[in-house]
# Entry
Amino acid sequence: MTDITTLEADISAAIAAAADAAALEAVRVSALGKSGSISELLKSLGGMSPDERREQGPKINGLRDRIQAAIASRKADLEAAELDARLAAERVDLTLPAPPRRKGSVHPTMQVMDEMIAVFAEMGFSVAEGPDIETDFNNFTALNFPPKHPAREMHDTFFLPEDEHGERKVLRTHTSPVQVRVMHAVNEKVPAWVANGQEPPIRVIVPGRTFRKDSDQTHTPMFHQIEGLVIDKGIHMGHLKWTLETFIARFFETSAVETRFRPHHFPFTEPSAEMDVKCDRSGGEVKIGQGEDWLEILGCGMVHPNVLRNCGLDPDVWQGFAFGCGVDRLGVLKYGMPDLRDMFASDARWLAHYGFSAFAAPNSATGLS
Ligand code: DAH
# Structure
């Protein structure tokens, strides 16, 4: 007959030595399982005499109860230890900095447009807009382009298929057609769809998308312009020159920028000029406000009498000046982007590098006055 005391000591030692739930379960099966040591003892009660059974019964049952209790207690200890280990391993360190949140940025073109608008707004200009798809009349004819002007040819202009009236609209090749839309308000013959119309005096700038069949390091088929138009009585080249020189000084945030006006030709202005800024091109980078080179940055001139007439204004009463300027180009110059085409490649890494914070919107309070 197995010595109960020895058996209890052995099983108790095995319970204490069980390092995890699986080991403890093995001990339980070897003691209390179907043919475990204690189960065998319990079975042996059946073959005993009543006296023997009376004496051994309580001992064996007591052994079973104590071992069951010891296993339960060890199981609880192991589970508590396992939980402690997990809590220690998975502890969240609240003192660590949070991972950075991905946030968008303002595209350099939009930033530059906002900066330009801020400068002109301070000079009393308001913003006018027009559609990307324009009539041939607004884009060319009203602006005094002769019927056979090369800019109308397929190689420059994106023409749309003929519409139901047999008219071929265009993707506007410049923001100048919005001049026509703004001035047309005073012409009673103007159709109702002409928006943004104003009575003179007029002082507007027109930011927007423009399109031409062109693509190289300094040209993209879609680009942005800002147009300017001033119509009033007695307007002359002096007003034009002051306005543009003031704009350039404020935009580049230095009064050191030297400018020059070079005679040029545009169908919609007379006289016409291109404005250059002095810069330094040595070292492959263009630096404004220093050096001895000239860089063309915009076209301008006095509004052609034919344009005024086409828009219903009497050139003997009203005069004006206009200008048109590439926004992306100015952004490249101010913020040093090497290739204009990158601006519209939608590369998130490029945008993260060159983009601007949405919370630094330009206005006179943020240093552009
Ligand atoms: N529309 C011209 C262009 O895209 C730029 C321009 C030149 C606009 C002279 C004007 C202007 O308003 O007066 O090349």
Summary: The pocket of 3,4-dihydroxyphenylalanine is lined by residues 174, 176, 227, 266, 269, 299-301, 322-324 (CB under 6 Å). The mean pLDDT is 88. Residues 47 and 336 are 101 Å apart (CA to CA).
